[in-house]
Amino acid sequence: MIQRPAPLAEADDAVNFRLAAPEETGTGGVVLVSPSVIGSINRGRVLQALYDNGPTSRADLARLAGVNRTTVTGIVQPMIEEGLLIEGEAPRSTGLGGKPARPLVFNPDAPMLGAILLLPGRIQTALVSLTGEVTAQAHGRFDPHGDLDAFRAVLFDTMAETLGGAARTPFGIGVAAGGMIDSDKGLIVTVALAPILDGLPLAAILKERFGLPVVIDHHPRALLVGDRWFGPGRGQQNFAAIYTGEVLGGAFYMDGKVYRGLAGSGGELGHTIVQFGGAACNCGKHGCWETVATLSWLRREAAARGLSDPDTVHAARLVAEAEGGSATAAGLLDLYARNIAIGIANLQQTLSLNYYILHGDAAMGGPPLARRIGEHVERFVLMRPNQEIVIAVSGNGEGRTALRGAAGLVVSDRLKLVI
């Protein structure tokens, strides 16, 4: 299933991507893709090739990333000078002549990246290396309906504990936050399950407190970035991350980059309508996907069907009980799979991404739940010849993937990558 990216034109070939500018023709031509954007895309491809393949020579990076050798040198040299990359030991000569190329590797002594996962009621912080190692984790709890000063104190203490484990000043802090996020302004717009965070200029608050660059994005998009660099999204040019839990969200990777929408407003999948006139949602509307494919729905259904301890029901438990012979658990598991599949099928019909990575509770259901979801999706969509729809499960854990993705936001911002 792994697909290598198609070659991109180099910055000095940018004329192939643009119409002549008005001052050149007088006809009102419009620039389609600027050299700076192409440079950002190329940097992202080179970096992804290093993540995917480990220590790699310049020549191999050029081949894997679909760029020429001169472009690779122009990309990696500033990263070497900044201490992000180093040259490894050259392999032993094969005796066929010529000097073996020294591979480029991520510098193990490079500054770390601060990462925060902020969800209603809980905070998780960590240091993340350029190669995705997660260390110095700390956890904090806060009252989602409580006092803002108390929240700030917990946030600052938790982050300070983590940053205290850094040998050098980190490059910056990336935040993966639940709720509606304005990624351009670094602002939490609203969080239905944690109103204390509504309107919070979190990026500015953290920057003022710690004196580091701060990047914030929607929690599912951080999961997506973590998937792309370190998980089952490696090598994919089109895929979606789908998160289920107390809420439902998602994010898209399309044509080799993250889709964010206006001010990061894209990806509010939980509030797409799947049941006209359906149950009331936390957002105030009715029939949202979130009303039929989250843990609160699942536990209400478990109670209605007579399952024991319904408030503890989750996907992994349903799978275990279904495999143990419980027809009630099997029926509820299949309905849960169908409800998740409804939204994925709508995405597939609209965007034809073909590759969907489950996170959160759905991921805890493992391959048995993923298989059921896939079967329902194929029944719902109009399949094309030779089309394959893949429902994958993230095996890295929600917290680790989100923290890695939050760190990736810092890398992409620092290096001006298109991801």
UniProtKB/TrEMBL annotation:
One Pfam match: ROK
Record-stated family: Belongs to the ROK (NagC/XylR) family.
Gene3D superfamilies recorded: 3.30.420.40, Winged helix-like DNA-binding domain superfamily/Winged helix DNA-binding domain
InterPro entries: ATPase_NBD, ROK, WH-like_DNA-bd_sf, WH_DNA-bd_sf
PANTHER family according to UniProt: BIFUNCTIONAL UDP-N-ACETYLGLUCOSAMINE 2-EPIMERASE_N-ACETYLMANNOSAMINE KINASE (PTHR18964:SF149), ROK (REPRESSOR, ORF, KINASE) FAMILY (PTHR18964)
Domain of life according to the entry: Bacteria
Annotated organism of origin: Aureimonas endophytica
Xref: SUPFAM superfamilies: Actin-like ATPase domain, Winged helix' DNA-binding domain
Coiled coil: none
Protein name: NBD/HSP70 family sugar kinase
